[in-house]
């Protein structure tokens, strides 16, 4: 005799303290829960609705600059500190946690085109329109060193491990902070370079974009550039993927961003489109899965690195043209600098709650994300999750851009059909000329409307009508030659006249 005994582990049943919630036993067998899918769908629908309700991405704005903010840099060791440079030559160091300015000084006369930190964060560098490179040491008293160049500078990028940096301008130059002259000058062409960025993984390689619409790859171990391509329009900024060493994305003037593999640069891996004006800056997340873009259309967008369309768009009523964007190193915040002197701080995930969360809140959040991922292709959930409000100007511009693209596609299709028809008519005309000189012989030709149809040809002796009969419809008829009898010729001639009158518009009969 078998005796079954119920046994339960006390750790799974008994509460550890009186403040804990009672633990409920639940049988997860699917046959006992026939409506589980319907319940989970309803939970996913509620979760995506609450996501839109709590989507409030804007956190704060940092005031203090007197002119537009055109460049930013994040501290490599401290998550809460960042640099910003404006059009009036002022450089500011910010503490994002307290929302205060730690340091501000007018280091340049004119535009500040680029700022960066050293790998350890002990110094920061800035370049500007006044042909100078400023090296400042952070501490109780900021010490300042100046390097003088031959021409203005447009950008600066520091090597991740070596004590060298590269600048862009009329020439691409490799510098050491301990020397007054550049170590190496790398050029390919004569146009101004507006962006230079070191690779975060392959640290000896850096890329640049120039005003001649080119993207150039350099290796500091070589004496000349290694590769160069040209796009249809100019690229404003470039950013390497921090997790995929060979991939980078450029922000282009044609409203799109393009992702390239530096090993195969003949064709872009992905085109990211949704902006309605030029894309001015781009910044990858530390995970390498997403990137943020700043545009001349007064908006920010967040893209998945393998998606052609944005998952999020940020905008405010007062925000003007956005010239720079930076993704924080903790993957939670995005900062942007715009033309109306403000620096804005945004959430990387618009509906994410700021602050500490209990274990139950974190578990509920993960459960909701899994449900949305499971039911994301259902029409109602997809419609709610994709819906975004945009300013009227962007909405109208996007609609007009869509109409222009569709008109261009129709125009290209019409031209392609016209060229195809002309080619077929030319081929058919050549076939007719050959047929007229080969009377009494059997052959085939391609019909201009049905080029794959094989046609049987015959010529009548009395009427002089070239009779073309489709072989697949009249296979019992034979070609008329001089060896036929007079009666046979008259019969075929009468049938040829009737057939020519009936099929004059079908293209089968030629007189």
From TrEMBL:
Belongs to the WD repeat DCAF13/WDSOF1 family. WD repeats lie at residues 62-104, 272-313, 315-356. It is found in: Nucleus, Nucleolus. Residues 409-452 are annotated as: Disordered. The keyword Repeat applies. The keyword Repeat applies. Keywords: Nucleus, Repeat, Ribonucleoprotein, WD repeat. GO terms for cellular component: small-subunit processome. Residues 409-421 have a biased composition (Basic and acidic residues). Its main location: nucleus. This is DDB1- and CUL4-associated factor 13. GO terms for biological process: maturation of SSU-rRNA from tricistronic rRNA transcript (SSU-rRNA, 5.8S rRNA, LSU-rRNA); protein ubiquitination. It holds the Pfam family WD40. Residues 348-422 form the Sof1-like protein domain. Residues 433-442 have a biased composition (Acidic residues).
């Amino acid at each position: 005799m078998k005796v079954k005994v119920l046994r339960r582990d006390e750790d799974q049943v008994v509460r550890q303290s009186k403040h804990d919630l009672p633990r409920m036993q639940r049988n997860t067998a699917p046959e006992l829960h026939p409506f589980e899918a319907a319940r989970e769908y309803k939970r996913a629908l509620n979760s995506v609705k609450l996501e839109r309700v709590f989507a409030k991405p804007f956190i704060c704005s940092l005031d203090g600059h007197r002119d537009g903010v055109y460049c930013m840099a994040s501290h490599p060791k401290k998550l809460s500190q960042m640099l910003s440079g404006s059009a009036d030559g002022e450089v500011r160091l910010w503490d994002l946690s307290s929302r205060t300015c730690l340091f501000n000084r007018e280091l340049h006369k004119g535009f500040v085109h680029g700022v960066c930190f050293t790998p350890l964060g002990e110094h920061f560098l800035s370049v500007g329109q006044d042909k100078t490179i400023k090296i400042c040491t952070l501490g109780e008293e900021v010490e300042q060193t100046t390097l003088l160049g031959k021409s203005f500078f447009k950008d600066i990028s520091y090597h991740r491990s070596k004590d060298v940096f590269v600048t862009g301008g009329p020439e691409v130059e490799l510098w050491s902070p301990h020397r007054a002259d550049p170590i190496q000058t790398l050029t390919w062409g004569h146009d101004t370079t507006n962006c230079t960025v070191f690779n975060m993984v392959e640290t000896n390689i850096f890329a640049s974009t120039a005003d001649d619409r080119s993207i150039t790859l350099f290796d500091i171990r070589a004496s000349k550039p290694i590769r160069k391509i040209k796009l249809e329009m100019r690229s404003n900024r470039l950013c390497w993927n921090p997790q995929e060493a060979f991939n980078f994305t450029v922000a282009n003037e044609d409203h799109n961003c393009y992702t390239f593999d530096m090993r195969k640069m003949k064709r872009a891996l992905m085109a990211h489109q949704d902006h309605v004006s030029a894309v001015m800056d781009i910044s990858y997340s530390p995970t390498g899965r997403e990137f943020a873009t700043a545009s001349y259309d007064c908006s920010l967008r967040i893209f998945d690195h393998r998606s052609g369309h944005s998952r999020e768009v940020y905008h405010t009523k007062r925000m003007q043209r956005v010239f720079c964007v930076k993704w924080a190193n903790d993957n939670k915040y995005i900062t942007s600098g715009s033309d109306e002197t403000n620096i804005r701080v945004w959430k990387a995930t618009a509906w994410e709650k700021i602050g500490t969360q209990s274990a139950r809140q974190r578990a509920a959040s993960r459960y909701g994300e899994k449900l949305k991922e499971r039911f994301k292709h259902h029409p109602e959930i997809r419609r709610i999750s994709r819906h975004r409000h945009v300013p009227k100007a962007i909405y109208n511009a996007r609609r007009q851009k869509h109409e222009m693209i569709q008109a261009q596609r129709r125009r290209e299709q019409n031209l392609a059909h016209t060229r195809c028809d002309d080619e077929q008519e030319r081929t058919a005309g050549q076939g007719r000329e050959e047929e007229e000189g080969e009377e009494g012989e059997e052959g085939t030709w391609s019909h201009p409307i049905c080029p794959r149809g094989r046609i049987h040809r015959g010529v009548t002796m009395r009427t002089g009508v070239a009779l073309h009969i489709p072989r697949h419809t009249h296979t019992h008829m034979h070609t008329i030659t001089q060896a036929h009898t007079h009666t046979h010729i008259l019969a075929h001639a009468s049938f040829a006249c009737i057939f020519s009158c009936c099929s004059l518009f079908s293209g089968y009969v030629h007189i």
